[in-house]
């Protein structure tokens, strides 16, 4: 019994009988998910009418069965071709929103064990069977892939564009701390660049990953309902940590007193004859801590490198890479387990707990006394440039 396979509307021949197909016959064409899949079931037994047999199959309400998994929402239709052979056709669409579309994508993922293999496609046994399970036709091997080269290329372009936007935002404007306000009487150095913020990095990191992944998945599947509960919980943990970190940066603490002590030292050095510019520069660096580079800023405070920052940065990176792997493997947002979410919460909670004890302004080394307000800087003295 000859078998044919149709992908993207074109039919190609498959050599051998149905039994040979079940034993390992392979189609030459590749079916891309989203295009109709058509298989020839061959001519009906001698003496049977093709139209009658096709009508009987249609009455059974058969669905597509791939690798032993029944794909919901893939009601097959059967008809006769010009040779008197029965053709079965079913949709392979993974697009759409709502529970039905989500169940269909989940069934394909289970059948495919992820949409992508290293070769870009997988050869799987395909048959028609009852919607409740089982098969009613002889399986035939079909080569299937999750998306066309065009869709994958377009999704990659959108992903890179969105991800680049967040990277640009981090380095250009939104990745640095903004809690340092000018101290009266102490000018902020020209071109001053505040340190990068770990909490802001984490928020932009996850916002970029989730947004870019969403756009890429939408490009391929056409589905707008792909955000999982686990993803929303993850963004809630990250957003909550950012809010708490911003609140902590703005609340009065010992750093304010140390900053005033350095301001007094700056004013004394500026009033000396001649002005002590080395002391002025040292005081300015303490009052307005400059950026030391991305990694030093993310991993340290005034006391040096901190292990709680390292653990948060490492876990954020590892989970982010894993998240992206699952997106490319399944064409969907991963449903993070309660254990992963709990570990992320513990990591963020540990970071914030230690952050409350961090010192962003170094302790003055001299015996400077904190004044009620910093003395004015002589008008003739200019602040050192840079920082």
From TrEMBL:
Q: Which organism is it from?
A: Azospirillum picis
Q: What is the lineage of its organism?
A: Bacteria, Pseudomonadati, Pseudomonadota, Alphaproteobacteria, Rhodospirillales
Positions of the UniProt region annotated as Disordered? 362-387
The record's keywords, sorted A to Z, are: Membrane, Transmembrane, Transmembrane helix
What is the protein name stated in its UniProt record?
Uncharacterized protein
Residues annotated as transmembrane: 152-171, 203-221, 227-247
């Amino acid at each position: 019994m000859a078998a044919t396979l149709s992908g993207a509307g074109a039919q190609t021949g498959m050599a051998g009988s149905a039994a040979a197909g079940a034993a390992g016959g392979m189609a030459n064409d590749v079916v891309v998910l989203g295009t109709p899949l058509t298989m020839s079931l061959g001519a009906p037994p001698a003496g049977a009418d093709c139209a009658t047999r096709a009508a009987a199959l249609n009455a059974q309400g058969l669905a597509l069965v791939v690798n032993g998994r029944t794909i919901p929402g893939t009601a097959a239709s059967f008809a006769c071709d010009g040779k008197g052979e029965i053709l079965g056709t079913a949709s392979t669409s993974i697009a759409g929103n709502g529970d039905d579309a989500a169940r269909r994508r989940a069934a394909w993922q289970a059948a495919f064990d992820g949409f992508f293999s290293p070769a870009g496609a997988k050869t799987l046994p395909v048959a028609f069977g009852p919607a409740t399970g089982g098969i009613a036709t002889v399986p035939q091997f079909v080569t299937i892939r999750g998306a066309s080269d065009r869709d994958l290329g377009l999704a990659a372009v959108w992903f890179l564009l969105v991800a680049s936007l967040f990277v640009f935002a981090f380095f250009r404007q939104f990745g640095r701390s903004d809690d340092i306000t000018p101290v009266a009487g102490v000018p902020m150095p020209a071109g001053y660049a505040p340190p990068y913020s770990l909490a802001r990095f984490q928020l932009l990191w996850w916002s970029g990953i989730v947004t870019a992944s969403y756009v890429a998945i939408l490009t391929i599947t056409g589905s707008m309902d792909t955000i999982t509960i686990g993803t929303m919980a993850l963004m809630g943990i990250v957003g909550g940590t950012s809010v708490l970190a911003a609140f902590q940066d703005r609340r009065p603490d010992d750093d304010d007193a140390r900053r005033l002590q350095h301001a007094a030292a700056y004013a004394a050095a500026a009033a000396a004859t001649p002005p002590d510019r080395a002391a002025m520069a040292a005081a300015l660096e303490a009052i307005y801590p400059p950026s030391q580079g991305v990694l030093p800023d993310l991993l340290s405070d005034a006391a040096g490198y901190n292990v709680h920052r390292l653990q948060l940065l490492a876990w954020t990176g590892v989970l982010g890479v894993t998240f992206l792997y699952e997106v490319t493997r399944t064409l969907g947002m991963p449903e993070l387990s309660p254990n992963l979410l709990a570990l992320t919460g513990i990591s963020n909670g540990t970071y914030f707990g230690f952050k409350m004890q961090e010192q962003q302004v170094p302790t003055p080394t001299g015996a400077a006394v904190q004044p009620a307000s910093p003395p004015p800087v002589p008008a003739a003295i200019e602040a050192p440039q840079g920082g």
